[in-house]
Amino acid sequence: MALEYLSQEQIDKVCLVSAHRTLLITHICATVLDRSFTTTVIPNFLNQEETDVLLNRSKQLLDEFDIESHPRTKFTTGDDNHVGDDYFLSSGDKIRFFLEEDAVDPDGKLNRPKQKAVNKIGHGLNIHPLPALHELDPHFRKATLSNDRLKSLVRDLKFHRDPVALQSMVITKQQQIGGEVPEHNDSTFLYTNPPTALGFWIALERCTATNGALSFLPGSHRTSSITKRFVRLPSGGTGFEDLPVSESPNTTKGEYILETCNPGDLVLIHGSVLHKSERNTSPNTRFAYTFHMIDSPPYAEYDTKNWLQPTTEMPFSRILPPGEINTKVVSAN
Question: CA-to-CA distance for 128 and 191, rounded, in angstroms?
Fold first, then answer.
């Protein structure tokens, strides 16, 4: 079957091990088995006009954000203090604003303009509305669910049989205070059985070594097991629950690789790859639009303990047209 969007060279950078549903994303090297693995960057996935539309819409949302009615929910990422209030837990089908820790003083007052205080906007920017529901944001929906290039990429990759999109957000990475995001993998937060999470991260501004570009640990998806998942706690809030691991995970060694990129570039992130970003110490913001895909039943089971849960009124949004399923998943065999 002819490829629709990706080049054969890009396809050759992707290898699937079907037994573990492991996506191996790599730079070009000599052989499949001996490569050092990192991530795939697809340049100019969105053109300049499309990128500007999302960037300008993000800034408009910040301008329109009502800080007076906001509960001052900050986006925190530590194991012991990860964000988990109701404002966060009920955000999957809404557009909500999460503040930088350093933008709020002990009395709950902002120490800078609201536009420069928000860590991210999420988590339902891309939602495809049912007939009885309003459209949350047509600009992000168009870039995600109505994007023919994205559908073609999904068909070319064949990583999912029937993918759905979830957890869409704009990460602003504010100048000077844009918080560090520690080492993590995405399957911890969007756990499925078997693991199927795949991140789509689109730069809306230039991403550099000083404003918090992403870094990845090559090979970590093969040597670092998923040992915990981020869940809703029965007592309320969120926390991490340990997962049974059949064997002791190997300690991944090596140096992180920085992936600088330009506006419109798409970074594909396998759910098991360890990645992080440093604090933004520059005078420039680092806006990015990101969402995830997982496989839907019966091909994968989305855990009911996950922090983000679909609702009857607003289920996760299918990527492919009704009735279309990827009939073959690429394997290394």
Answer: 22
Per-residue pLDDT tens digits for 288-317: 999 999 999 999 999 999 999 988 878 899
Rounded (5°) CA angle 84-178-120: 45
Is residue 253 over pLDDT 60? Answer: yes
Q: In the 3-class helix/strand/coil scheme, how is the chain assigned residue by residue?
A: CCCCCCCHHHHHCEEEECCCCEEEEECCCCCCCCCCEECEEECCCCCHHHHHHHHHHHHHHHHHCCCCCCCCCECCCCCCCCCCCHHHHCCCCCEEEEECHHHECCCCCECCCHHHCEEEEEEECCCCCCCCCCCCCHHHHHHHCCCHHHHHHHHHHCCCCCEEEEEEEEECCCCCCCCCEEEECHHHCCCEECCCCEEEEEECCCECCCCCCEEECCCHHHHCCCCEEEEECCCCCEEEEECCCCCCCCCCCCCCEEECECCCCEEEEECCCCEEECCCCCCCCCCEEEEEEEECCCCCEECCCECCCCCCCCCCEECCCCCCCCCCCCCCC
Of the chain, the percentage scoring pLDDT greater than 70 comes to 81
Note the pTM of the prediction, 2 decimals: 0.86
Give the model confidence (pLDDT) of 78-97 as tens digits. Answer: 555 545 578 888 888 888 99
